[in-house]
Design brief:
Elements lengths: L26 H4 L3 H44 L8 H8 L5 H17 L1 H16 L6 H24 L8 H19 L1
Helix pairs in contact: 2-4, 4-5, 4-6, 6-7
């Protein structure tokens, strides 16, 4: 052994007599600590319980959404309210909007119809122009539908965020909503 210029006469000897494991390692390094194992097991149980609670809470939210949507659909069929969001309904009918976003969209439309019926009347009037072009029978109509998704998808994501369904909104969707509302205000003044 080289000493690299360090005197070795004063180096104390190290006592390894505490090592009794056959591998030469201390027993506590070979076997995990029982308290640590119990702590990990408890943490795993807590995580599993949190997962179950989240799943139950999600199921409850879905049931509430479905019930509310069902009640809304019934009232529309009975003629008590105007249908909510006609453009998104058409996009959903074509299979281009997920069911969960569509249900939240319908609730949003219901809230608007209850709180701002004049706005919904205006919306239905303007939306008819779009619906007339969304029949999906010609190439031009199919192209129009695909192009409309540039606006409908961000709008629906922002709407789902406003309704508390998504954790993150859409900046373009927020801008579209503001622009649409300004258009409504402009038309109302004229």
């Amino acid at each position: 052994m080289q000493n690299y210029g360090v005197p070795t006469s004063n180096v104390p000897s190290i006592d390894f007599s505490f090592v009794t494991a056959p591998s030469g390692l201390a027993p506590d390094l070979i076997q995990p600590d029982k308290a640590l194992e119990e702590q990990k097991a408890l943490q795993l149980q807590q995580i599993e319980l949190q997962k179950q609670q989240m799943a139950q809470s999600q199921e409850s939210a879905n049931r509430a959404l479905e019930l509310s949507y069902y009640q809304y659909a019934q009232s529309v069929q009975q003629g008590n309210k105007k249908s909510g969001k006609v453009i998104c309904t058409r996009i959903h009918e074509l299979g281009l909007m997920p069911d969960d976003i569509f249900r939240v969209d319908q609730l949003y439309g219901e809230l608007l119809a209850d709180q701002h019926p004049d706005f919904m009347d205006w919306y239905h009037e303007k939306a008819q122009w779009f619906l007339d072009r969304m029949h999906n029978k010609t190439l031009a109509s199919k192209l129009f539908i695909r192009l409309s998704l540039i606006f409908v998808n961000p709008w629906s994501r922002q709407m789902a965020y406003i309704m508390g369904y998504l954790n993150r909104g859409n900046i373009f969707g927020k801008w579209l909503m503001q622009a649409f509302y300004k258009w409504y205000l402009h038309d109302r003044r004229n």
